[in-house]
Amino acid sequence: MEACLRRITLSRLSCFCAWTILLALCVQGQPGFVLALDEPIKVEDRRDAHGRLIVSKALGISFSGYLEGSYTQNFSNPSNGINQLRIFDVNANEFRPNVAKFVLDREAHADGAGWERAGFHVKFNAGKDSKFIGGTNLSPYADFQEFYVQYVLPVGTGLDIKAGRINTLIGFEGLESPENPNYSRSWLFGLGQPFTTFGIRASYEFSKQVSFSIGGINSITSSTGDSTNKLMVESALVWTVTERLKATFYGLFGPRPGQRPGSGGNRVLGGGFVNYQLSDKASLVLEAYYANQERASDLSRGGERQMGRGGRLPYL
After folding, report:
1. Are the beta carbons of 61 and 119 closer than 8 angstroms?
2. DSSP 315
3. DSSP-based helix, strand, coil % in the chain, nearest 5
4. Contact at 8 Å (CB) between 171 and 191?
5. What is the pLDDT of residues 133-164, one digit of tens each?
6. Coil, strand, or helix at residue 314?
7. How far is CA 45 from the centre of its chain?
8. Which pLDDT does position 265 carry in this prediction?
9. Quick one: which of 59, 164, 52, 160 has its CA closest to 116?
10. CA separation for the pair 134, 144 (Å, rounded)
11. Were 304 and a residue from 7, 102, 220, 296 both cysteine, which residue would form a disulfide, CB within 3.0 to 4.6 Å?
């Protein structure tokens, strides 16, 4: 089922991207138009200082990305050239072209009307990290990490609906290196938590202090392997206690295949993290989670348990 959806989605995305680029090229240099691919802006701000219509702003589209490369020195000099139990810094004593990331995005606005409430998000990766990130792989060196459509329903403050492949709700750390305090990811992230999920997600902001997201998913990617399974549910509750203190509680439940054919069962994962802002640049993050996989392998009929906890003191 997902394979069929992937083919359809990729086909539609390819057509959309091609027509968007073609439209931009057609109007580039035409009187009254100027092309600008920049940061997301307010809906009403669509013209430059001379009153000329800016195409990307008129369509509400923004483009962004970054390049990442690294070198890791292992003084043990492993014969196979691999740093064991690492996530993206797996190559010992050599340069690694991690990723070239490109993002095409149209932000959906809860205070808009009609078309302004609709959006989409496409994130494409090229580089060695693509194999580990998962998503929808085109090759070991290229993948669509995220691709989803979005619409904010006019319910209360706005019910945000997304459908497609989306970064998971689970965990403090993420796939994008610029958004992480450390280049090397923790074992909490790399060995126990999913990277992306495929399905539909609803998010609602009850107040400035409390928001909740829940999703029905049938596919997970992670560093330990990708899997397509029956319906699973993931969720996250975010509570902004004060301006300095924020708590996030997350969970995942549903059937997942085991390591061998015929194994597998319900997987339960629950945890959360607390982020306390010590100063303008320093913060303290504490995270813990528990996970249990029924019949993860033929050798663990009673289930396989994972527990993790960690602390971070970022200064940015």
Report:
1. no
2. B
3. 15, 50, 35
4. no
5. 877 778 889 999 999 999 999 999 999 999 99
6. coil
7. 28
8. 78
9. 59
10. 8
11. 296
Strands 118-126, 142-153: pairing kind: antiparallel
Closest to 109 measured CA to CA, from 157, 77, 146, 180: 157
Short-list 126, 124, 145, 125, CA closest to 134: 145
Yes or no: say if 106 and 59 are a contact pair by the CB < 8 Å rule.
Answer: yes
**Contact call for residues 123 and 101 (beta carbons, < 8 A):** yes
Other Cβ atoms less than 10 A from the Cβ of 72: the count is 17
- For residue 93, CA distances in Å to 54, 82, 172, 234 come to 47, 9, 29, 38
User: Helix (H, G, I), strand (E, B), or coil: what is residue 43?
Assistant: coil
Whole-angstrom distance, CA of residue 27 vs CA of residue 261:
55
Contact between 200 and 169 under an 8 Å Cβ cutoff? The reply is no
Q: Amino acid identity, residue 61? A: I
Going by C-beta distance under 8 Å and a sequence separation of 6 or more, which residues neighbour residue 254? 217, 229, 230, 231, 232, 233, 266, 267
Contacts of 51 (CB under 8 A, 6+ apart): none
DSSP-based three-state secondary structure for 111: coil
Interval 120-135: pLDDT, tens: 999 999 999 988 887 7
Q: DSSP for 146-208?
A: EEEEEEEESSTT-EEEEEEEEE-S--S--S-GGGSS-SSPPHHHHHHS-SEEEEEEEEEESSS
Token pair belonging to 129: 């990290």
Rounded distance, CA 5 to CA 13, Å? 12
